[in-house]
Amino acid sequence: LQYLRLDSNALVGEVPATLSDISLLRYLYLDSNRLSGTIPSTLGSLAWLNLLDMGNNSVSGSIPPDLLTLHNLTFISLWRNALEGEIPGHNSSLVELTWMFLGDNSLSGTLPSTLTTSRQLNFLGAAKNRLSGTLPPGLSAVETLSTFMMHQNSLSGTLPSDLAGDHMSTISVSNNRGLSGTLPSEFGSLPMLSLIHISEPTRLLSISYAVFCLKKKKLPFHCPFLSP
Where are the alpha helices (DSSP H) in 75-182? Predict the structure, then answer.
């Protein structure tokens, strides 16, 4: 068995630790159920796992560190749960990761600098958590990163000038009380950047609310994550 899709049902109870017995499992969809308990640490032994989606459940506890050492993992979504603790960063080896969505939990600590080692990361979202500290420098080294969603946390410091690379299109850092300073001038030369979202109580530029639509482009869609 390589593909297991059980999403959008009314499943209850805990995620079985015995899922790790499906050694060749590549795609695991458990999102949009009523699952509780913790994420089994045994899932970190699924060496071939490409996709893990457990979003929109009631899973609690912390993210098992071994889960973020899976070399083949390209997509992980744990949004809208009750997860706590830090995002594991030590020994992280997600070099193939393209999508990480951890929003709407109670995660704390800092954003791991090891995320800059990913070669394919396109979407990085951990909004609506309790993350603190400064943003890691060098994210521009992740040349494929296009969306950076970190609003409604407790981040501090300034926006690093090397936060974004040439493929960055959206930066959302609204409602971080500790962010201050000015927008890096380097942002003005980014060819794909079309939206920077900042609002109170973020103190960047001492403005109460701002949405910068660079190049006067209008978004062709409604994005609820970017509403004030």
Answer: none
The ranges of the chain with pLDDT < 70 are: 90-92, 199-228
Residue 54 structure tokens: 């457990």
Question: Residue 72 phi/psi, 5° resolution?
Answer: -95, 0
Under 8 Å between Cβ of 55 and 79: yes
CA of 138: how far to CAs of 118, 131, 204, 206, in Å? Answer: 11, 18, 20, 25
pLDDT digits (tens, 9 = 90+) for 138-177: 787 888 999 999 999 999 988 888 888 888 888 888 888 8
CA neighbor of 4 nearest in space, from 21, 26, 31: 26
Residue 7, helix vs strand vs coil:
coil
Residue 68 CA to residue 228 CA, distance in Å, equals 32
Measured from the Cβ of residue 201, the count of other Cβ atoms closer than 10 Å reads 11
Cβ neighbourhood burial of 39 (10 Å; 0-12, 13-18, 19+): buried
Asked if 32 contacts 5 with a C-beta cutoff of 8 angstroms, the reply is no
Task: Give the pTM.
Answer: 0.87
* pLDDT at residue 36 in the model: 98
